[in-house]
Amino acid sequence: MEIRADKESIRVSGYVNVVGRDSRVLRDASGGFIEQISPGAFGRALQSGQPVELRYNHRKTLESPDMQLREDQIGLWAQATVTDPEVIDAAERKELRGWSFGFVKQKDHWKTDENGTRRRFVDDLELREVSVLNVTPAYIATSIEARGEDEILIEFRAEAELDGGVDYVRETETTATTQEKTITPEGESTMALVRKTVEYYTMKRRRDNAL
């Protein structure tokens, strides 16, 4: 993740997830497994036209009229200008840790390799949101949301940077000048981790049910 800051805003950019790369060992009810997001899954999700929200720690909605999301040969890349004071303050204190995303699985398949390791491949997904984190995610997380008469499983994953992987750049230009610049993303060393965050979706379901 690269963070460029001035007095009025910050611009964050980097890879939310590297496709085709093994995660760390995750765990479910059946034990440990390794996961990959299949190449093309994010691109198809973005082409569907489903809105993707920008959030802070999966809870707080962030306004960013210039947010960009795309899948390239590396993975899902994001860039956004944020004017939220809480996030700017976290950036000033160098507390931002990386990206995370929330998704609903549309299609996946499982394999067991010769060592007996279970491997999950997420082939298609519904991308719900991407989040900027000020905490280091540590484990797999899920949430349940009602959709009509059904319940859907929302999963959260994060690409937390290795030490030194978050690059803070102080800028003196105005916000307008900052937004006009283009950042070319570079490949980043990342490890797949997860943050348990369910409160937002629980409250959202309650609000929706109350309407």
Number of domains as seen in the coordinates: 1
Q: Between the first and last Cα atoms, what is the distance in angstroms?
A: 38 Å
Instruction: Please state roughly what percent of the residues sit in beta strands, choosing from under 5%, 5-15%, 15-25%, 25-35%, 35-45% or over 45%.
Output: over 45%
* Spatial extent as radius of gyration: 17 Å
Tell me the quaternary state.
single chain
Largest pleated sheet? 9 strands, mixed
Q: Which regions are unreliable across 5 or more consecutive residues at pLDDT < 50?
A: 160-165, 170-202
Number of helices: 4
Query: Helicity, in percent?
Result: 10-25%
Mean pLDDT, all residues: 75
Count the E strands.
14
**Secondary-structure element order, N to C:** EEEEHEEEEHEEEEEHEH
Overall shape? globular
Content-based structural category: alpha+beta
Describe the structure.
- With 211 residues, this protein is an alpha+beta fold.
- The chain contains four helices and 14 strands.
- The longest helix is centred in the C-terminal third of the chain and has 12 residues, at 199-210.
- The relative contact order is 0.25.
- InterPro entries: Peptidase_S78_dom (IPR054613), Prohead_protease (IPR006433).
- GO terms for molecular function: peptidase activity.
- Residues 3-147 form the Prohead serine protease domain.
- Keywords: Hydrolase, Protease, Viral release from host cell.
